């Protein structure tokens, strides 16, 4: 068994992990995204070529909702569902 790439103390209660592979956000390719159920944000972890977590960003903190599911569309957009029944889409600004 390998050591985790990233862990949290105290736990953010991560859920619905994806590895981003789309073209809509080229700088995020290979990054991990998870919903932080306890902290109520979308968590992005940048992974270097050696598989190490090198940076972290908390997105959508002002939303204050638990992100339950994350999927990537064929266009590379990121869709999220919340425990309040919302479906959200992250797409590049025009």
Automatic annotation (TrEMBL):
A family per Pfam: GSDH
InterPro entries: 6-blade_b-propeller_TolB-like (IPR011042), Glc/Sorbosone_DH (IPR012938)
Residue ranges occupied by any Glucose/Sorbosone dehydrogenase domain in the UniProt entry: 1-89
Gene3D superfamilies on file: TolB, C-terminal domain (2.120.10.30)
Designated name of the protein: Glucose/Sorbosone dehydrogenase domain-containing protein
Organism: marine metagenome
């Amino acid at each position: 068994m390998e050591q985790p790439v990233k862990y949290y103390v105290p736990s953010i209660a991560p859920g619905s992990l994806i590895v981003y592979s789309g073209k809509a956000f080229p700088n995020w390719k290979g990054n991990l995204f998870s919903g932080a159920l306890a902290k109520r944000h979308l968590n992005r972890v940048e992974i270097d070529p050696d598989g190490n977590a090198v940076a972290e960003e908390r997105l959508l903190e002002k939303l204050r909702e638990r992100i339950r599911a994350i999927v990537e569309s064929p266009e590379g957009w990121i869709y999220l569902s919340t425990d309040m029944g919302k479906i959200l889409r992250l797409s590049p600004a025009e």
